[in-house]
């Protein structure tokens, strides 16, 4: 069900009040709802106002004194913000989605064991350990494994197991009994299938909780998440406001996304939105995953030109809060310290998503173990390595562990991934995962079988593994930083939700699932409608929208991949023809003003 359409409000304040009135009506009518709040719309404000309404009338929404409203967030930072803005009221149970789900499902160990045995992602691990019945199932470090005394779950396991338990009517009733109202923040980041499991379980059941989703499906940029939610029990409420950006940026976003037009705040300035492209670059463009992109050296030169010699350089120089967002993987890899890894794998997803078992082991186990040893957290060290705490009766026992990790740390600083793997293979303190040991063994056997003049050409996984062994191990450490947390945008897209006065977006290739030029061209009226169904379209559109919507005042988009005529026309429509600028180059391929 969708709320009645209405014309866009005159300003953001009016649009916000209209959305809030519709939200309160759904809440009072005990209807499940979805608040669709585009970038800068003030989603958290609406969420907090809904919580305050519940707290003001607890007897209406929480009829029993032991009942609470659950507010589930995607991050601990968001959780803490909700707690602070509701004055830590005990009637509000604010937690991360994973924290809430684990609290709900952890008491049901027998059901969890059955769910694990039905899980495809656990099939191989459980086959290696047939006798696991009776082992405690835990979720603490977020690392998947079967140990002597317990089974440990990965973060991705929690929603998968919860989905299975939501099929149980008794489980659902127990949740409803404790939480008559459940709010889910950033709903688009909900793991795939979870929102549908909740809604299918409760639906429009008058005895079920009121479920409210707050988010924006155009800001879905994480893997294995649901994106848009469509269900017959949901009242859809658009919030047509933008409190963040100046008018030029809001206009650009509205052109990109006309289905959810936003009204700027009444006192918004004019701002700028400018597009720069490198179509006239005379050099030979890159191939493979970087097809159509200018060289890395030319990319850096264009970025320098943009900051110091372009029409936007005035506001860039004067900015006190400038953010450069990089949507080109080659640039990110160089900036963050893992330049070799993208060239090892045929798909960036193999290492960026830890699909390669060796990368997964080094990032999830070896690096955290080294860190735990360095910080003298030995209990965590032994848990990471998957064994009970070893007997350390004699000084020599401690010396064996200490000497080994001192050697491992030294090798990890100066050696290659192959050097570290050799050291891991040479010890008897703990076991390597079966998949890692198998990959090492298969490569050794394949190399021994080669003739004097033969090169290893197949299978691809062994070719990639051989190349991976030659990469400096320092790149694993840099990759871990990228995967876990960083201030650079594309490192887990960690600035989603953040805002900056002025933003430069460097747009290019290198990511397997992103093609921004093709996505933009697909918006041309004459383009084939099937282009919008391509796998890369939604991924590219969402990441582009998120990055372009971070700016408060000034936005500059620098394209270092080749743009088609259709893409140029679309950008001229979105930003204005006078604001789409072609960078001019000299014969050597340098921006002209830099070579002068």
TrEMBL record:
Keywords, comma-separated and alphabetical: ATP-binding, Helicase, Hydrolase, Nucleotide-binding
Claim: Ribonucleoprotein is one of the keywords in the record: no
One of the GO BP terms on file: recombinational repair
Pfam families according to UniProt: AAA_19 (PF13245)
Molecular function via GO: 3'-5' DNA helicase activity; ATP binding; DNA binding
SUPFAM superfamilies: P-loop containing nucleoside triphosphate hydrolases
Any one Gene Ontology cellular component term annotated for this protein: cytosol
PANTHER family: DNA 3'-5' HELICASE, UVRD / RECB / PCRA DNA HELICASE FAMILY MEMBER
Protein name listed in UniProt: DNA helicase-2 / ATP-dependent DNA helicase PcrA
The organism's taxonomic lineage, starting at the top: Bacteria, Bacillati, Actinomycetota, Actinomycetes, Micrococcales
């Amino acid at each position: 069900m969708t709320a009645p359409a209405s014309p866009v409000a005159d300003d953001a304040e009016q649009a916000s009040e209209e959305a809030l009135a519709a939200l309160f009506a759904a809440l009072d009518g005990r209807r499940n709802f979805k608040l669709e709040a585009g970038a800068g719309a003030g989603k958290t404000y609406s969420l907090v106002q809904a919580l305050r309404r519940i707290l003001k009338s607890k007897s209406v929404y929480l009829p029993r004194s032991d009942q609470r409203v659950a507010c589930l967030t995607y991050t601990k930072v968001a959780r803490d913000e909700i707690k602070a803005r509701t004055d830590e009221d005990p009637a509000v149970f604010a937690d991360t989605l994973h924290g809430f789900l684990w609290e709900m499902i952890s008491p049901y160990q027998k059901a969890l064991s059955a769910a694990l045995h039905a899980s495809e992602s656990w099939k191989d691990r459980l086959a290696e350990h047939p006798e696991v019945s009776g082992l405690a199932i835990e979720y603490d470090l977020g690392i998947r494994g079967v140990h002597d005394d317990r089974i440990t779950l990965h973060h991705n396991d929690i929603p998968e197991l919860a989905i299975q338990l939501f099929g149980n009517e008794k489980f659902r009733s127990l949740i409803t009994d404790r939480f008559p109202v459940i709010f889910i923040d950033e709903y688009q980041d909900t793991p795939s299938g979870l929102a549908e499991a909740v809604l299918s379980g409760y639906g429009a059941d008058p005895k079920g909780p009121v479920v409210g989703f707050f988010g924006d499906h155009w800001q879905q940029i994480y893997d294995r998440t649901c994106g848009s939610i469509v269900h017959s029990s949901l009242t859809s409420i658009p919030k047509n406001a933008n409190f963040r950006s100046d008018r030029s940026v809001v206009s650009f976003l509205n052109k990109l996304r006309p289905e959810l037009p936003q009204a700027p705040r009444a006192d918004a300035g004019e701002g700028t939105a400018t597009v720069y492209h490198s179509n006239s670059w005379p050099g030979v463009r890159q191939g493979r995953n970087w097809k159509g992109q200018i060289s890395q050296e030319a990319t850096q030169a264009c970025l320098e030109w943009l900051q110091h010699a372009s029409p936007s350089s005035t506001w860039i120089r004067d900015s006190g809060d400038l953010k450069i967002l990089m949507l080109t993987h080659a640039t990110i890899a160089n900036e963050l310290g893992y330049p070799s890894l993208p060239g090892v794998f045929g798909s960036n997803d193999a290492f960026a998503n830890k699909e390669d078992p060796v990368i997964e082991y080094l990032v999830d186990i070896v690096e955290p173990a080294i860190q735990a040893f360095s910080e003298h957290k030995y209990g965590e060290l032994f848990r990471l390595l998957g064994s009970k705490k070893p007997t350390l009766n004699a000084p020599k026992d401690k010396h064996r562990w200490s000497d080994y990790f001192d050697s491992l740390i030294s090798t990890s600083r100066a050696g290659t991934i192959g050097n570290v793997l050799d050291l891991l293979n040479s010890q008897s303190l703990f076991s390597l995962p079966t998949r890692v040991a198998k990959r090492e063994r298969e490569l050794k056997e394949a190399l021994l079988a080669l003739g004097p003049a033969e090169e290893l050409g197949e299978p691809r996984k062994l070719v990639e593994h051989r190349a991976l062994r030659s990469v400096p191990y320092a790149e694993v450490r840099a990759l871990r930083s990228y995967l876990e947390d960083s201030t650079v945008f594309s490192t887990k897209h960690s600035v989603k939700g953040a805002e900056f006065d002025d933003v430069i977006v460097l747009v290019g290739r290198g990511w397997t699932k992103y093609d921004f030029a093709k996505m933009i061209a697909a918006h041309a009226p004459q383009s084939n409608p099937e282009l919008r169904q391509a796998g890369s379209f939604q991924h590219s559109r969402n990441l582009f929208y998120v990055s372009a919507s971070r700016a408060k005042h000034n936005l500059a988009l620098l394209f270092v991949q080749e743009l088609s005529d259709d893409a140029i026309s679309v950008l001229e429509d979105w930003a204005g023809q006078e604001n789409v600028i072609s960078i001019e180059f000299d014969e050597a391929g340098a921006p002209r003003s830099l070579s002068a």
